[in-house]
Amino acid sequence: MSSGGYTATTEALSAAAKTIGDLAEHLLDDNPDLQTPQVTAEKFGRAHGTHATKYTAGAQALWAAVSGYSSTLGSFGTNLGTAGSSYRTNEGDQAGAITNAGGSL
Predict the structure, then answer these.
(1) DSSP H helical segments within 30-51, as ranges?
(2) CA 9 from centre of chain
(3) CA atoms within 13 A of residue 84's CA, in its CB half-sphere
(4) What is the arithmetic mean of pLDDT over 80-97?
(5) CA distance 24 to 8
(6) Global pTM?
(7) CA atoms 73, 75, 81, 84: torsion sign
(8) d(CA 50, CA 37)
């Protein structure tokens, strides 16, 4: 019976790692317009062309933020996967230690 506390399973860690890794991988692919906005000073129009620089600078800053977030997500997903592998190894080691200890009773 669970005491209501935190539990972790290797399957949950692996699933989370995959989900986060997929998100990180697709984040940049799903937002290509941020990297190279289609709006130029000419497309802003004569009256507003001077504001195009602010717009494109903002889009580039947003792209940098999304790229950084994607990298962070990728690292986090990798770390979760590594934690899941370590957790699985530790579970196996502990199961073996318990079995060995019980065998000497």
Answers:
(1) 32-35, 41-44
(2) 19
(3) 16
(4) 83
(5) 23
(6) 0.59
(7) negative
(8) 16
